[in-house]
Amino acid sequence: MVPIVLWSTVLAFTRGLGESLGIFRAGTFILLVGGSLSCAILFFSYGFLTPFRTHKPLYWFVCGTLFISYQALLYIAIGTCDNRSQLIEVGLINYLWIGFTLLFSVPILKKKAKPFLLIFGILLGFSGAMLAILSRSTAEFFSTSAVFENIAGNPIPYL
After folding, report:
1. What's the pLDDT score for residue 62?
2. Which among 52, 63, 89, 109 is least buried, having the fewest CB atoms inside 10 angstroms?
């Protein structure tokens, strides 16, 4: 339950901290605190270097590069949002990576999956995110024009 609450508040927390510290300083602070806590837990649970010896250094380099790139692009997107509505839309688009992970993990890991269930699950996830993006708390429901106005007004966070 705690991870879900923390994960759901990360965009608002980052935006709020970014407004006072600057978006990259806030991102650095968040990742530094999270990384320090993770390293402390890792050290006291397993001994610090034991889990790192299970993979080759190239694995850690590639994964670290991808993680840093993802975080930098996410903080750029958060920092360039013009308003809170746009921040919520960008945050929901950000969570579409889960569907792409499912989609690409099957051929990369050479696992067997039932195509119907895989496609149905991915479409269900994407449609849930789109439903959340397109719905508004006002009388408008499925206001695609508001979303397209936000994208046209400031396309950088969406990219």
Report:
1. 92
2. 109
